[in-house]
Structures are given as structure tokens and as C-alpha cells.
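Bench log, entry 3. Co-assembly request; chain sequences pasted below exactly as received.
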Amino acid sequence: MGRGARFLLSVLAALPGGAAAQPLGDAEYGEYLSAECTTCHQRDGSFDGIPSITRWPTKEFTAAMLAYRAKQRPHPVMQMVAARLSDEEIAALAAYYATIEN
Amino acid sequence: MIALNRRLFIGTLTATLTAPMVIARTRPRVVIIGGGAGGATIARYLAKDSKGALDVVLVEPTRTYYTCFFSNLFLGGFREYKSLGHGYGTLAAEYGVNVVHDFATGVDRDAKAVTLASGVVMPYDRLVLSPGIDFVEGSVPGWSLAAQNAMPHAYKGGSQTQLLKAQLAAMPEGGTFAMVAPPNPYRCPPGPYERISMVAHYLKSHNPTAKILILDPKEGYSKQALFEEGWDRHYPGMITRIGPDMGGNMLKVRPDAMEVVVDGEVEKVDVCNVIPAQRAGNIASLADVTEGGWAPVQADSMLSKTDTNIYVLGDATNQADMPKSAFSANSQAKVAANHIRGALTGSKVFPARYSNTCWSLIAPDDGVKVGASYAPTPEKIASVQGFISQRGEDDALRKATYEESLGWYAGITADMFGA
Ligand SMILES: Cc1cc2nc3c(=O)[nH]c(=O)nc-3n(C[C@H](O)[C@H](O)[C@H](O)COP(=O)(O)OP(=O)(O)OC[C@H]3O[C@@H](n4cnc5c(N)ncnc54)[C@H](O)[C@@H]3O)c2cc1C
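Structure output for the full assembly:
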């Protein structure tokens, strides 16, 4: 198993259960934070060269952001965005994006 | 919340009984001047997030906003002109923004009211200025707005961009395209050099013996190593840059004769793109919130340092470490929107954070980018962390970077005007 995958597993293990079971992050804060995402990732989920993150399951969203923050996953913009997100902020964003309505 | 509702109710009642004119002001009003990257974004966020609690008025003279961003791609033939145009209909119809197509001519800070060119006086509770840039008169000797048809700037969107494209297409075989580049600070630091890349791409296929001359008052510029590498690779021998060491800062132009005089030497050119020195859009000066041409702002809110009822966004501000870009203006708008809602409706105010990324296209599928995150410090909006494309990146990465920029354009315009 590669370092990245091991890291991901350990991170996932540290997270509380599934999206439904855990107390969600502060969605109002998540919505505010999401404004940084929507400059590139369209809120309605349209894909024009930058992938959609709308209604991404909490677990995957969180894992991706943690991997960017740890610089395990390549992409300079996303590494920069993730670098200053705390665990709570990632949780808030994940909660918001999982439940977003159009 | 209950107190607010009661106030609202009583306000409406009194208004109905006395002066009907007052009805419109039962909700706090935010007047936004300028419907560009900063202004359209904040109008949308204020209307969307306040859910009707704010009266959001957007003053913008044009019916269709033509983006400066991606206008270079239009010059290069990668974009249709009409794809750069965006209307305000969705902001009005779906978000309830009161879009007023008019031009602000004055701000009475004591009375908290804006005067429009039509003569209407529009009172505000909070005012947002996002007027973009105007040019510094006399900064390029011989050039003035009266000469902008002979020597276009194409540094505000719309007709000027079309004019420059037409002049490029009409260039004689083997002719010279000259650019007078601006001194710092100016909107979109890589913008002039992306433009050179796109002009070179166009000429390479339509007029391959043509030459490009850049007259530049600056020692260096954004993404310079990346542009120079790209120019050597894609357009060898076509582009000459004359920096300040060679007199690039000592020039004048003669629009009638299509001449550029560099350090006393006369150059005859066929197209001359003059990008003058810049300052905040004039309404910021009329409102008296500028200092040395730009509006100083508080780093944690985008509030003007001279008036606590006025916010300034985008190019017009003195933004410390942040570059003047649509991305920056859009990012600042969200911080200010959150702050204004907090002040007027009591909603939660979250800490400010800003970011920026600027993509540039050098040649087909050869995209590069530079970006950083920013945070407020007591002194300024300070850079936290940044990145830049590297020289010698492989073609696949450069292509992916270009494709990402297309996604960004779609994203930011949806974020400004509503999808
Ligand atoms: C060639 C070029 C390429 C660029 N490329 C990029 C890029 O790739 N990425 C990027 O992020 N940025 C780019 N930019 C920069 C970007 O266009 C600006 O930074 C951005 O538009 C700034 O937003 P703003 O709200 O400050 O001003 P603007 O978007 O210019 O909006 C100002 C608006 O205010 C209106 N206005 C002015 N005065 C008044 C008044 N008195 N009353 C009412 N309305 C008024 C104007 O009509 C205008 O619509 C580029 C710029 C250029 C020129």
C-alpha cells in the first residue's frame, strides 16, 4: 500500500461514521466557506472543465480535502485552498456540499 | 428577528399612512455602483443570502457586461465575441436585484445618497463601489481618450476589444504591432503579456512575417519566465520587448502619424495598443475615498478606511498583496457581502479569507497559472501561500491548465450573474 493510501485510511478511520450518523459541520459556516469554491466549481453542478463538487458524499469530500491538505493529492490550487482549512471547516464544507439543493 | 419584523411592520404602516415614497425604504438599502466582477458578485450574494431582507440596488450603465477576462482569447481566435457578454436579467428576475441602468455621478456621504446621471438621487444605508479603473491622463504623452480609436487600449471590455481585433486583422503583411505596457499597479498583471501571446498566435497563422514590439516601463512582470519560454518556443523571433533600460519608460506616441517615439527614436507602427497608467474608477475619487489614485480598505471587511458606510471592491481598491483581477474582486465581494449582512440584518459575520488564481494562455493548449491565498492582518490583505506554473511542464499538464481556465470562466460568470 502506498503512503498516500495508508494516510487516507488512517484519516478515514479517525473520522466518525457515515454522513447520516455523525453530527454535521456547521452548514451556515459551510455555505460561507463554499463561496471560495464557487468561483470555479459551479454550484448547480455544471461541468465545464472543472469537476462538480455538488452533492459529493461527505466521506469522499472530506478524504479529498484532507489529501490535498497533506499534499498527497496533486493540484496546486486545491492544495492551497485546503492548506488553511481546519478539520471543522472541512466538515462544515462537506456538510454543506452533501446537502446542497438547487 | 422579532424586533426587526415589528420595525418593518410599523415602518410599512407609517409609510402607508403618510408618504408613499417612504415605502421603498422599509428594508435597509445597499446601493452598488458598477456591475462587474466585484459589483455583480456582491449584488447576487447580498440578494441570495439576505432572502429579501435587503433592498439591493445595482447601478450599471451597460445592458451587457463584456468581460475583460478572456478578451485576449477572443483576440487569439479562441473565443467568440458574444461569449464574453453577460446580461443582468437573472439578477433581476431570480434574485430580486433592482438593476438600474444609469451612471453614478456623485456621492453625498453626509446625506448617504448617490446621484445618478438621470438626475435621480438614491439614498443608501450602505454603499458599495466597484467601478473598476479609469486611466491616468497624460501618463502616455501624446495619448488621450480622444485618440483611443487610432490607438486602442482595449483594457475596458466591449467595443475597444472589437476595435483592436479589427485592427489586428487589417494589419499589412509584415507590419508591426506595438504595445505600450502599463506601469504598476494595473488590472490583471499578466494581461498585457497574455495579449501579446494571443496576438502572436493570430499573426503566426495570418501574417507570419509581422513583428511585435512591447514598450514597457517596468523592469519585470508577472509570469515573465513562463511567457518568455513560451514565446521562444511558439513565436521565435517575432517579439521584441524594450524595457526601461532601453528607453521603454521614455516614450511618446503620435496617434495621427501612427508613430511611437522611444528615447528620441521614431518607430512607424501599424497597430498601437496603448495601455495607460491606471487609477480607481472616477466615482471613487468623487466620493473622496481614494488616496494616491486607489481606495484604501480595511483588510477584514473591504470597508473604506475613510467612511464606515462605504465598501470598495476590486480594481478600485488599494489591495496590498492581492493582484487586481476578476478573481480577487469576486473573492472580496463575498467577504464584504457577509460583513454588510451582519451590519444590516444581524446575520453571523465569519472571518475574511481571500484567494486568487490567474490563468493565461500562451498558445493553443499551453496554459499557465499563478495564484495565492490571502488573509487580513492589521496592516493589509497579506499573502499567505502561493504557487506558479513551472517552466518546462509537459504538454498534458499545460493542456489541463488551459481546460481548467475554461471551467473557471464558466464558474465565475455563473457566480457573478447567476447561472
Ligand atoms: C485583457 C484583460 C484580461 C484579463 N484577464 C483576467 C483573467 O484572466 N482573470 C482575472 O481574474 N481577471 C482578469 N482581468 C481583470 C479583470 O477584468 C478585472 O480585474 C475585474 O473586471 C475587476 O472587477 P471590478 O468589479 O473592479 O471592475 P469591472 O469588472 O471593470 O466593473 C466595473 C463596472 O463599473 C461600471 N461603472 C464604472 N463607473 C461607474 C459609475 N460611475 N456608475 C455606474 N457604473 C459604473 C462599469 O461600467 C463596469 O461595468 C483581465 C483584464 C483585462 C483588461
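Chain A touches chain B through 26 residues (CB under 8 Å). Confidence is low (pLDDT under 50) at residues 1-23 of chain A.
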